């Protein structure tokens, strides 16, 4: 009991958090009311987000995001999500942010959103000691042309705060290689690369993200477990997985935490890390993730210390920032 308490309170590194997906339903309802937009259809009677499966989740996600209109709205969300992360002991976090939702891919508009978000993040760092960095996120089911606009926004704002390009969205649409132009543009701008793969598609999707896009981390990647040659490729190339166990179980990728492959991947030697993905959508928090893994896989404090070391080593920020957080 005492050890579980200590585990829940460990300082945590989170590498995979969708900015809009971290918006609590009450926050979105409040904005909808202010702006007189009716999105009541996306909520259950108890106030939680209502969706049937992952693909419906993506629709509800976009409907919820539609009430986030101004840079100020995004700044308010930034403060709210960092308060929640700090309550969970998160000391360093990387968040996926889409220019598609922040000015529609226009670079000038994107800079304004980014400026407002950074101000909120800097204030949270001063007040709560939590550090945030941004990963620009092309959305796969919006297609390669919109991805290029997102990547251009990323390249134009690459630096100490925008640290990477990371594709999200429906991995059943198109191929990883359709987005190679965007990933090349980001790499040339000095950005680090990650892509969602192996959440819904099998091991070959994970291989394609590595071989066709040159990513050094994978969002999820857990279905690599279906082909040990792909697992060994991840080990050999030192690719880190951004694993979101609670998200996977809630969406039915795996039936339970006990059956989740995170422990098998870790034992074999893959660099695994732990994140929440979209916490209010999947009814999870970083404390819940840690407690669930401690119970399901008998992970002790030492294992979590290793997980956080792996996460910090794979973080996209500069070395000085990394050394300051743990
Ligand atoms: N966007 C938000 N959450 C996502 C997930 N788990 N997979 C793909 N795209 C997402
Ligand atoms: Zn994700």
From TrEMBL:
Q: Which domain of life is it from?
A: Bacteria
As one GO molecular function, the record gives: metal ion binding
Q: Which UniProt keywords apply?
A: Hydrolase, Metal-binding, Zinc
The EC number(s) attached to this protein equal: 3.5.4.40
Every copy of the Adenosine deaminase domain together lies at 11-326
Q: Which cofactor does it need?
A: Zn(2+)
Determine if RNA-binding is one of this entry's keywords: no
**NCBIfam families annotated for this entry?**
aden_deam, PRK09358.1-3
Family recorded in the similarity comment: Belongs to the metallo-dependent hydrolases superfamily. Adenosine and AMP deaminases family.
PANTHER family recorded: ADENINE DEAMINASE (PTHR43114)
Protein name stated in the entry: Aminodeoxyfutalosine deaminase
